[in-house]
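So, is this right?
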Amino acid sequence: QYLVGRRKYLALMNLALVARAHMFMLSKPGTAKSMMVDQVMLRISGATLFSLLFDKFEAKDAMFGPPSIKALKEGERRREFEGYGPDAEVVFADEIWKGSEAATTAMLELVNERRHQVGHRKEAAKLWSMFAASNELPEPTNNNLAAIYDRFGLRVYVDQIEDPAEMIQLL
C-alpha cells in the first residue's frame, strides 16, 4: 500500500532474494528505491539489513567495520564487522558509484564470493543479496566500478510514476 506502482520491482527484489542474486536499480531521484528495500526487509523475519549511503570519502570501515583496537594490541589485524556489511543477510548500497574506488573494490569479494577477511583468514559472510541503487551508471572507463557493476545479475530501471490514477493514489 505504501509503494504505488512498484509491484514489478518488488517482485524482482523477491526473486533476487530467493535466487541469492544481486540487484542494481537505476533511476531518477525520488522513485522509492531505498523505501522498497526497507519495506521488503520489514517483512522478512529475522533477517538483517545493512544500508550504506556512499560518498567519495567512504572508506572500507563504513562497509566492513572499524579495525579492532583490542586485536591490534594483540598484534593481529582484524575488523569489528558485527553490525556491518559482512554480518547482514542483505546489504543496500545507496548511490554506489559515488563511493571511493577503494570502498567499491573492497566489496568485490563480499559480493562475488560472499566472503570477507578476518585477520589472516577468510570467512563466510551472511550475505544473501545486495541491492544497489544510483541515479547514474558507473563511468565506462573506470575498471574498478565496472567490476562491481558486473556482479549485479539483475539490473532494472525504476520508472517514475506517470499514471495519473497512481499519482492520485500516492498523494
